[in-house]
Structures are given as C-alpha cells and as structure tokens.
Amino acid sequence: MALASPLLALPFMASDRDRVESALRTAVRTRDAHLNELASHLIVAGGKRLRPVLAIAAAQVGSEKAVSDEVIQGGIACELVHLGSLYHDDVMDESATRRGVDTVNARWGNLQAILAGDFMLAKASEIAAALGTEVVTLLAQTIGRLCEGQIEELRHTYDMSRSIPSYLVSIEGKTASLFATSARIGALVAGHDRLIVEALTSYGTAYGMVFQIVDDILDVIATDDELGKRSGHDMEEGVYTLPVLLTLTSDSTDAIELRDLLGRPFSGTERDKALVIVRSNSGVKNAIETAREYVTIAEAQCDKLPVSSATNALRQAPHVLLESVIR
Fold this sequence. Notes:
Strand order of the largest sheet: 1-2
Number of helices: 16
Largest sheet: 2 strands, antiparallel
Number of strands: 2
Number of domains: 1
Order of helices and strands: HHHHEEHHHHHHHHHHHH
Helix content: over 70%
Radius of gyration: 20 Å
C-alpha cells in the first residue's frame, strides 16, 4: 500500500540492497538443513528491508560513497530482530500467511516457529557484538523495548478505555524503537559525530511513529485486496489503534454505536459495521494529523544534518508514507 520510499533511490542503494540480501542469507546459514529452511523462510519470501535501508541512509548522510560492510552488518542485525519478532507475532496471532507464503508456525508448528525466532534474535546479537560494545548493548536494549511495547498492547486487548498515550507508548516500543536503532547503528558504524548520531536516532523514532500510525490507518481504510488480508484485522483481534481510539473518544452517536460493537470478539457482520463507522468518522482524519506531527519532528531532525542526497531522501521519506493514507 505505501508508496516507494525515496530512500530506495539513493546512490548505491540498489547494490547495497543486494549486499543486504546476500548477508541476510549468510547470517542464518547453519549446518542444520532444516533450521536453514526455517530461518530463511521469510527472507526468501522478500520484504522491503526498511530497517537496513534506514541504516544505510543514515550512514550515507554527508557522503555520496557506498557504505562499508560493517554498515550492512549493522543493518541486517536490525532486520534479523525484525524477522525474529515476526515469527513470534505470527505465533501469538495464529497467523496462517505472511508475505504471500505460509507462516513458519502454520507450516511447521508453534514450537519450531518460536525457536526459529529465537535463533534470529541470537544471530542478530552475534552480529552486533562484532560491531562493538555500544552496538550490541543498544540492540539488546531495543529487543527489550520491543517486548515492552508488545506487552503494553496486549494488556489492553479489547479495552475500549485504552488511552492515546498508552497507544503511543506501545508503538514507540514495538515499532519506532527498532527504526531508531537502525538509524543509530548506521550512524555509529559510519563514524558520524555525536550530534548527527542523536539527530538520526530521533529521526528514526519519528519515522517509526509515522510508519506505524500509517499502517494502523491503512488497516481500517484499505480494502482486503489492497492489504492482502482482512481489513479491520486489528479490531478483530481486540487491538484498538489510533483511528479507532480517536473515534471512540469523539462526541458523536457513531462513537456510542462503535462502543456497542467493541469490547469483545466480533460476530456476524459486526466487523463490517465497525469499519463503516471508523471510516466515516473524524478518527481517521485526526490520526493522520497525529502522524503529520511526527513528520514535522522528522523534518526538524533533518535540519541538523549535513546537506547530501541521503539527507534529502530522509526528509522526503515520512511524507511519502503519509501520502499513502491521504485520499
């Protein structure tokens, strides 16, 4: 659904993405053929590789040169954390497909999916350790934040009284923290000075917030065909995201009707009714405005960076995300 990121048009990015793909496959290769198949399953299925791409873009700020192998390794450490978390998410959500293929849990069972996810996290840590104490510590802290964000979401399942701050804390942990770490690792490994490192880290957080809010908006406004899954899936699972929460807090008869539908698993046509309410209410519009605030934050961090193709692409990237939900 999201439009192509300007980051993909950076000099050397096409070849750098090839380097990422090769390094990812190498990173999960073991002597055990079955574990190789489990660990490489989603890698082979493809993906945007946004986290390595962000690490590469952060490293290229102020430079027009190809990045080092160490930057590529830093990027794939972040991607492996992301992939490992997807394996675990699919078990928790009982998902049957992802990226157009069977999930690992659907094909091989929950136990093997959990262990394969753990293996990805272990390989990420191994790679990060080779890049230095600061990088491996940062990655370990980020894995902790991913867990904190997910727990915050899970403890509010089917909770119509969930606050907006709870939602924002959750997505900052479960999504934005890994984007921030990707940018920070790219900056650290490239040897940028501390002011640039901090600006890129803050940029990564803001970009990640835009990314998740946009994703949550798409879940309620896009069609099943556009999403490749059932729209309103989060509501079905009892996860009430920003456009839903903003609709619930609106002073309207629609909010009352939506409250009557939520707070429990859907039955019959209740999902369709809930989607109609959310799509026609101000919740989506207000969620877009919240995302726009984070776009502004990302722009402000770009103002602190040296002029370069990477800086320009970083500035444009959150705008492109936001455009995918403005209709």
